[in-house]
Each structure stands twice: as C-alpha cells, then as structure tokens.
Design goal:
Length: 259
C-alpha cells in the first residue's frame, strides 16, 4: 500500500497545525504541504502533487470554491481528491461544492478520526478506510448513525438536502430497511405511510422522489453512482424507477450494516 500524500489548506493556523499533527500520526498518511489561503493551496497542489487536498471553503485571496474551479482547469492526471471543510452548512453551499467535484463536505466542528477515514476513501484506500471505521466503532461502542449513512450516500450520488424528495427518500429507505416487505407494497403502503408522516399526499411523495432521482442522474456522475452502490447502476439514459432506487440504497446500507 502506498502513502497517501495530503495538502491541508486552512487559514486557521491552529486548526491547520492540529490537523497536520493528527493526520501525520496515521498509518500511511503523509502531510506534504500546508497553505493558509487559496493561492497557496493551488501552489502546493502544483508543487507537491498530493493525492488529497483538504480545503477550507472560506479563505483569503481565493476561497475554496475558487480553488475547486482552478483545479478543474489544471492539466493534472490524476487530480487530487478534495475534502471540503467549512463552517457553512447551507444546502446551496453544499450543492455548489458537489457540483465542483468535492469528494466529501465536512461541516466544522468535525471528528478528526472521521476526517482520516475520508482521506483514505478520497485516495482510494478503501481497505485502510474500512479498518479505521471498524476501529472507530469499537472505540465508541456504537456504529455510525443510520441518518448519517443515508446523508453521506445521498451526498455522494448528488441528491441535495434542500429538495423535498430528499426527505421523502430518506424516510422511504429507513422504512424499507425496517420492513423489507414494503418493497412489494410501494403504492399501497410505502408512499401513503410517508405522506401521513409529512402531512402530504401519496402522489406528491411519488413525484418528489422521482424529481430527486432525476436530479442525481442529471448531474451525470456515473463513477460516483457506481462507487456509492458498489456496482454498475443503470446508465444515465436509463434512470431507475423510484422502487429500484430505494431498493439500491436500502440494499447498500444493509450490506454495510451487516459487514
């Protein structure tokens, strides 16, 4: 296994130092560069050629969004995976970062161990990421919250949290994971059950979920979809039905839960 090379860009020098020290102590991670503004971040990426860039979204001279836009024009193969760090949790900010290609969007304050796991994942070191995840669960005595796992998967495939279909899909996945037989009674029980909880109608639930799936597919991120589900999904020209998508998500999360 190769060492994961990391550049950290954050104008909070205390946090930058703490992150550098923590990540430098993790197996297989080497912090090769530090930057305190966006222009320095670009310089460090060009000079150090890291596997992963950890980038604050609010920095002087050039913000994180500017860094992401500049990276998209740079002739680097491969480009570093980017983990966005920010105190801004607004859905539109998250959606913009996703559109610009971030691997993960982490809102401050965040868990350092979780960041290390994301670094491994962004670099394609899934074995190390899984091992750290197991260690974190053992130390905490509990598994990752189901809500967090659903949110992370939706973020990966490109479903923004501000649309109504996000909430309906999240509820549908949780209900199917609790009662798999609902997959055979989508229109008769699943949609009505969600509608009752949110004070709306079954038809609105169905349309909103359809819209959320179309948003994800229209982003055209086939690789992200395949990675999220661990296998090839339908092509961009062949979007899954609501039921197929709910089943894909529930199946993926169930596999991780039982691992």
């Amino acid at each position: 296994m190769e060492t994961v090379r990391v550049v950290i860009a954050d104008d909070n020098l205390q946090l930058q130092r703490m992150l550098g020290e923590y990540l430098g102590q993790q197996s297989g991670i080497e912090v090769v560069g530090l930057a305190s503004n966006g222009l320095e971040a670009i310089e460090q990426v060009q000079e150090k050629l890291p596997d992963v860039l950890i980038c604050d979204m609010i920095m002087p001279k050039m913000d994180g969004y500017g860094v992401l836009e500049r990276l998209s024009t740079m002739k680097m193969t491969p480009k570093p995976g980017v983990i966005a760090l920010t105190a801004l949790g607004r859905d539109d900010f998250i959606a913009r970062a996703i559109d610009l290609g971030v691997c993960y969007y982490m809102v401050k304050p965040f868990d350092f161990a979780m960041l290390a796991q994301r670094v491994y994942e962004a670099a394609g070191e899934t074995g190390r990421a899984d091992a750290l995840s197991v260690q974190m669960r053992r130390e905490s005595g509990e598994g990752e919250n189901l809500e967090e796992r659903i949110a992370n998967l939706f973020l990966t495939v490109g479903i923004p949290a501000h649309i109504k279909g996000y909430q309906f899909l999240r509820e549908a996945v949780k209900m199917v994971m609790e009662s798999p037989e609902l997959m055979g009674r989508i229109t008769k029980e699943l949609y009505p059950g969600i509608a009752h909880r949110f004070g709306t109608t079954s038809s609105k639930v169905e349309r909103a979920i359809r819209h959320a799936i179309e948003v994800a597919w229209n982003r055209g991120r086939v690789e992200a979809l395949d990675e999220a589900f661990g296998r090839n999904v339908c092509s961009l020209d062949d979007k899954p039905t609501n039921g197929e998508f709910i089943a894909l998500v529930a199946d993926r999360l169930s596999v991780k839960e039982s691992a």
